[in-house]
Amino acid sequence: MFEKLDPLLHSQLRLAVMSLLVGVKEAEFNYIKEKTGATAGNLSVQLNKLKDADYISITKEIVGSYPRTTCKVLPKGRKAFSEYVNALSSYIHPNGNE
Amino acid sequence: MNDAQKQLEMIHEMMNKSQREFQSASFYYLFWGWLVFISALVHYLLLTQTNFTHPYAVWATMPIAGIISGIYAAKQQKSSKVKTYIDEAIGSLWLIVAFAFFGLIAMAPALGIDKVYPFLILLYGIGTATTGKITGFKLLYISGLLTFPLAVASAYMNFDNQLLVLALAIFISYIIPGHLLKKKELQMANSDA
Questions:
Q1: Which of A24, A26, B83, B146 is the most buried (most CB within 10 A)?
Q2: Would you say residue A96 lies in a domain?
């Protein structure tokens, strides 16, 4: 039986962002942009969708005279990510082998 | 099915990208390494070659170095694009090592400085070896462990010679890996560019 995939994470960029963020404590917007190769506009939209679902938190501050946006995975996002990976695995190993 | 496989590969790739990151640490190894190395040798020379009454005054540079190190850390924190759990673990480790250092120094008047020096050397080794283990930098791990026999040997020496062992321990566990770390960081920076 295949498990249902979370539609919010079933997007290449949002999944890439979550994969990046689950391994770190927090990451800056430019770092995520650089690692995912996304455009600033698209990334900003996708980050806000993850934020609205309480999957991540976004903190905006001014450091020196520059704005700085930092993202962090929230417990709800971590749980959703873990469930998504498990669901994906069930597609690859439907009988639960490996 | 194929899509699921591709997505899992992408997840794996992104997680690998972030997990390889940790902040540049060579500054701390080189700054503290050379400072303690030179201070230990100057202390030794003042103690054995001169009649200077307060040779330990050379260590007065340590609190100033602590402030410089703290300012550097704060600046690095502000400019870093990503904060990893590895950074946090290493930061906590060295903070606790620093507290243990102060504790040992505070015990010195009661126990005798020659009684606490082997433990100071051991602490340097613990910090370096654990950092090496966490970051997967094998040479850092080995160089940290190499200071353990030096700490044991220093327990059987007089204070003059303990200063030389301290300098040797710092050279092995800070200065050599510090220069190699610097080289590695430059290589990583060039490969990212």
A1: A24
A2: no
CB contact under 8 A, B82 and A31: yes
Q: How many CA atoms lie within 13 A of B42 on its CB side?
A: 14
Q: How far is B95 from chain A (nearest CA, A)?
A: 19
Which residue in A has a C-alpha nearest to residue B84's C-alpha?
A: A24
Contact B75, B67 (CB under 8 A): no
**pLDDT at position A2, please?**
62
Interface test with A, best of B9, B17, B23, B86 (most A CBs within 10 A): B17
Give me the CATH number covering residue A33.
1.10.10.10
pLDDT computed for residue B192 by the predictor: 59
Helices and strands, number each (H, E), in chain B: 8, 1
Count of domains forming chain A = 1
The whole-number pLDDT of residue B168 equals 96
Asked whether residue A5 is domain-assigned, the answer is no
Residue among A22, A30, A88 whose CB faces B81 most closely: A30
Domain that holds residue A86: 12-90
Tell me the C-alpha distance between A85 and A87, whole Å. Answer: 5
- Preferred mutation among B14, B80, B84, B90 to probe A, highest tally of A CBs within 10 A: B14
Measured distance CA(B160)–CA(A63) in Å, rounded:
48
- Residue A28 within a domain: yes
Give the model's confidence band at B148: pLDDT under 50 very low, under 70 low, under 90 confident, else very high: very high
Q: Report yes or no for ipTM above 0.90.
A: no
A25 contacts B81? CB cut-off 8 A: no
Q: Where are the domains of chain B?
A: 25-192
Query: B96: which residues sit within 8 A by CB, 6+ positions away?
Result: none
In chain A, residues with a C-beta closer than 8 Å to the C-beta of B81 are 27-28, 30-31, 34
Compute the nearest-CA separation of A83 from chain B (Å): 13
